[in-house]
Design goal:
mainly alpha; 129 residues
Length: 129
């Protein structure tokens, strides 16, 4: 079971490192191991905690960038309605770039979901050995 202090520390790490190109999920697994905390990574309460912290991060980012997201979605819808992306419509361009960039990431995620689950929840195991 995760204590309130441990949850606070891991939550702060999640919030601090989510916007950087490092794995905030990795911090949630590695930090307890380094500090000798008795947290079982496969325990349902820990997994719920991880999902909750990532959901909270996503909600905060959506709220913080709400006007930008609205502009991007409006650009996407505008380009679908007119079937054209005007050269100066940066929101439509960005929206379509996000859609196109998500496709290979989704395919790779489906291909490697078993290996990534093993790596992220069991830092001592090697998925490819």
């Amino acid at each position: 079971m995760i204590s309130i202090v441990q949850g606070l520390i891991l939550g702060l790490l999640q919030g601090a490192f989510e916007l950087f190109p490092v794995s905030s999920l990795g911090h949630s697994v590695v930090i307890p191991a380094l500090l000798g905390w008795n947290i079982h990574e496969n325990d349902n309460s820990f997994l719920i905690f991880l999902v909750a912290t990532h959901l909270a991060t996503a909600l905060v980012l959506i709220a913080f960038y709400w006007s930008t997201w609205v502009a991007i979605v409006a650009g996407l819808l505008r380009s679908l309605r007119t079937r054209h992306i005007s050269p100066d419509d940066t929101n439509a361009k960005l929206g379509w770039l996000l859609v196109v960039a998500t496709i290979p990431a989704g395919i790779l995620g489906l291909c490697f979901k078993t290996a990534s689950a093993v790596c992220s929840l069991r830092p001592n195991r090697r998925p490819f050995s």
